[in-house]
Amino acid sequence: MIDIDLHVKEGGIHCPFCYTDQIEGGDFNVEPGYVTQDMACLECEAEWRDVYRLESALTIRKGKPTIKKGGNTRFTIVAIESGGKGSEDEVQALIKEHDYVKVNLPENYESFGAGNGEGVWAVPCSREDAVKCRDDSSYEEVAFVRLCNQPICHPLSWGDKIAVQTRRGNRPVALPNWGSGGIDEDV
């Protein structure tokens, strides 16, 4: 039985025919307002096309991105640099210099807005980033951190560099899709 509604509700992580998570996707086809991806089940060999619609936009202002609308639309935290580029020695030196901070990796725009998400340890990439992450008065400032443990909910790895947004006395929250659309750190 095909259950497209459940497939969409759960973010496309299972085959809509046999419900296995043994699925793979092809290349993305980008059109104005939406993206499609041909999918295949490795278990029952079914094929289908997932459609991703534009439901929100990241408004960029120098150092202060904010999210408009979006609700429960699932998104991905994208590494600006992979852990392979941030050597273990570099990350260990950052830890000695700046110590760890806990950051949240939200799964959707609603949890981003609320500041919720999977908590992971990270280390600020610079002194300026460390000050922003620890300053209880810092709000909606962009800082950069390297991950110090493996997230469960996002395809990120130890040492990956991500952008986070400060939230006053609360944990910084990872910015969705930062760096995936040509967004520059210096914006």
Description:
A five-stranded antiparallel beta sheet has the order 6-7-8-9-10. It has a three-stranded antiparallel beta sheet with strand order 1-2-3, with no helix packed on it. It is built from four helices and ten strands; from the N terminus they run H-E-E-E-E-E-H-E-H-E-H-E-E-E. It has helices at 4-9, 88-98, 109-114, 127-134, and strands at 23-31, 34-41, 47-53, 57-59, 66-68, 101-105, 118-124, 139-147, 161-167, 170-174. By secondary structure, the protein is an alpha+beta fold. The longest helix has 11 residues, at 88-98. It is elongated and about 55 Å long. Helices cover 17% and strands 34% of the residues. The chain folds into two domains: 4-53, no CATH class; 57-174, no CATH class. Strand 9 and strand 10 (170-174) form a beta hairpin.
Element string (H = helix, E = strand): HEEEEEHEHEHEEE
Shape: elongated
Mean pLDDT score, rounded?
79
**How would you classify the quaternary structure?**
single chain
**How many strands, which pairing sense, and closed or not: the largest β-sheet?**
5 strands, antiparallel
Please tell me how large the radius of gyration is: 18 Å
Classification by helices and strands: alpha+beta
Proportion of residues in extended strands: 25-35%
Sheet with most strands: strand arrangement? 6-7-8-9-10
Gap from first CA to last CA = 48 Å
Q: What percentage of residues falls in helices of 4 or more residues?
A: 10-25%
Low-confidence spans: 179-187
Number of structurally distinct domains = 2
Q: Strand tally, please? A: 10
Number of helices: 4
